[in-house]
Amino acid sequence: MRYHVDIASVPARPVVSLRRRGPLADIGASMRRLRELLAEADLKPSGPMMARFYADTTPGADADYDVAIAVVPPADGCVPDAVGEARGEWLPLHQVLEAVHHGPHGQMGEAWAAVREACAAAGCTPAGPVTEVYEVTRTDGVPPEQYVTRVQLPYVR
């Protein structure tokens, strides 16, 4: 599959994230745990779930990642530093190179390669982890062939 890579602006927003190191097969459990923590803290999601990957993952190896979700800030505008074992943070406005993947999550390798190749071709430098934003998933009641995931790579020139 060939991917079109666009430049996208990601708005500043508060998120809660849960850092993990382990098999990618555990990412779903990490997402469920993050949703539990949000509910316990009475924080409301304001966007899709995402995962940020801090190092390349080879098949069968442990991954270094976090799962995160944007939240509606409390009335005082402050996101708590700690939400159980998760942490709150404000993501700044930033630019990303983005490819949109349609299909199962296990087939996103070419989308990752496309954003990295676009970064190198433009003479840019990656400025953060590759992020997968899960726009349409099984929680939407669709089969894996209909999943939509935005693969994003922050960059600097």
Which percent band covers the strand fraction? 35-45%
What is the CATH class? Alpha Beta
- The portion of residues assigned to helices is 10-25%
Low-confidence parts lasting 5 or more residues at pLDDT below 50? none
Tell me the distance between the termini: 27 Å
Q: Could you say how many structural domains there are in total?
A: 1
Radius of gyration: 16 Å
What is the number of helical segments per DSSP (H or I, 4+ residues)? 2
CATH architecture: Alpha-Beta Barrel
What is the structural class?
A: alpha+beta
Report the principal-axis shape.
Answer: globular
Topology order in helix (H) and strand (E) letters: EEHEEEEEHEEE
Number of strands: 10
Average per-residue pLDDT, rounded, comes to 95
Characterize the biggest β-sheet: 10 strands, antiparallel
What is the fourth-level CATH superfamily? Regulatory factor, effector binding domain
CATH fold assignment: Multidrug-efflux Transporter 1 Regulator Bmrr, Chain A
